[in-house]
Amino acid sequence: MILSTIHHIAIIVSDYDKSKDFYVNKLGFEVIRENYRPEKEDWKLDLKIDSNTELEIFAPKNPPKRPSYPEACGLRHLAFKVEEIEAVVQQLKQLDIECEPIRTDEFTNKKMTFFFDPDGLPLELHE
């Protein structure tokens, strides 16, 4: 069996418009597909991360809250690779998105920090 790359990552959000604005207008992901699914009464938004990977955003009515923070079973966080973390942190700050202090990952010796989406999902920047 060969699992060559990640095709997509799926997240569930509580507010479709707020999350779409965050991921598209603030983080700059390109919309691939946007569909309302009447049978499920939800929105599904597919965003382009890179040439191989998509971010799927599902917005059902009244999704359950994350059971604990941040150590719930399941997705712990999404990490995005960046070239110059300080520059990205400044760009996020200009969009009123605060990041934790930049620190060095003890295993990779690369700079990293976290910020959060509108539902509190931890998002990491990693050089």
Question: How is this fold's topology laid out?
Answer:
Elements: E1 8-12, H1 16-26, E2 30-37, E3 42-48, E4 54-59, E5 78-81, H2 85-94, E6 103-104, E7 111-116, E8 122-126
Molecular structure report:
Helices cover about 15% and strands about 35% of the residues. A four-stranded mixed beta sheet has the order 1-4-3-2, with helices on one face. The protein is α/β, with parallel strands linked by helices and about 130 residues long. The chain has two domains: about 1-65, 2,3-Dihydroxybiphenyl 1,2-Dioxygenase, domain 1, CATH 3.10.180; about 65-125, 2,3-Dihydroxybiphenyl 1,2-Dioxygenase, domain 1 (Roll). It is built from two helices and eight strands, in the order βαββββαβββ.
Trace the largest sheet across and list its strands: 1-4-3-2
One letter per element, helices H and strands E, the order comes to EHEEEEHEEE
User: What is the architecture of the largest domain at the second tier of CATH?
Assistant: Roll
CATH top level label of the largest domain: Alpha Beta
Number of strands: 8
Mean pLDDT across all amino acids:
92
Distance between the termini: 30 Å
Question: How would a crystallographer describe the biggest sheet?
Answer: 4 strands, mixed
DSSP summary: helix tally: 2
Any idea how many domains?
A: 2
